[in-house]
Amino acid sequence: MAEPAYLDASLIAPPAEDAPTERRTAAEERRRAALDDRKRSFLRMVSHELRTPLNAVIGFSEILSHELYGPLGSPQYREYAQIVHDSGVKLLKLVNQIVEIARLEGHVTDIKMTPESLDEALEDVMEGLRPEIARREVIIHIIGQGALPLVIADSRGLRTMLSNLLQNAVTHSPAGGVVHVAAGRIGGEVEITIRDQGPGVDSAELPRLLQPFEQGGSPLTRNNEGVGLGLPIVDLLSRAMGGRLKLSSSLGAGFLARLILEAG
């Protein structure tokens, strides 16, 4: 006699008790996606509403400071216009950093990973920092320039990280100081090092520097501008790209930043 046929329901459908869990998970994912969309919309709105008037302030103050439509009269007016322009530029930079921190902490930054040339990225960054480098009389020495390795990174994010690290090194370097930049491949990764000859910070302070709005030294005694967003942005961006940032320093021994990314 033939054996009776039977159907193993587990082969065609999950147990009944799993269905509510799956529905809850799907609903949670939809809520998270909707929340991310709202965050992106809010950040775009804030970015636009803050940047638009600031760009007008910067643009028109530059026109006034250069007297493009005729003389202003007293030289003081040109000086005041330049102060307005410089203040607008600083405020715009702060707005950009705050928006970037909000995007990264809210996990709503769009990261597109592609092979990137460190030589080209550093060249772009150096061009933007050239006036600041000249003003502070700092020398940037890029070891192996022209033959630096490729990395896998987001193009804009890579330039943001390098700019923030170099800006930090230039800001804390003495006049005539040298900032050394190097990059080398270690296995499947590339380690980018940026070392300055500044005063350095106590090693116990290093973890605090990766927290937004933190700086080394007392707020009453520090001499450098900024609100302490550069290094946290680098840390968050590097982690979003599967990399990491390592800092080392001690008082009187300068500051070393090591940015580690996937090799291209």
UniProtKB/TrEMBL annotation:
UniProt-recorded Gene Ontology molecular function terms: histidine phosphotransfer kinase activity; phosphorelay sensor kinase activity
Domain (Histidine kinase) ranges: 45-264
Keyword Transferase: yes
Keyword entries, A-Z: Kinase, Phosphoprotein, Transferase
Catalyzed reactions: ATP + protein L-histidine = ADP + protein N-phospho-L-histidine
EC number, UniProt record: 2.7.13.3
Pfam families the UniProt entry points to: HATPase_c (PF02518), HisKA (PF00512)
Region Disordered, residue ranges: 1-24
One of the record's GO cellular component terms: plasma membrane
Protein name: histidine kinase
Organism: Caulobacter segnis
Taxonomic placement: Bacteria, Pseudomonadati, Pseudomonadota, Alphaproteobacteria, Caulobacterales
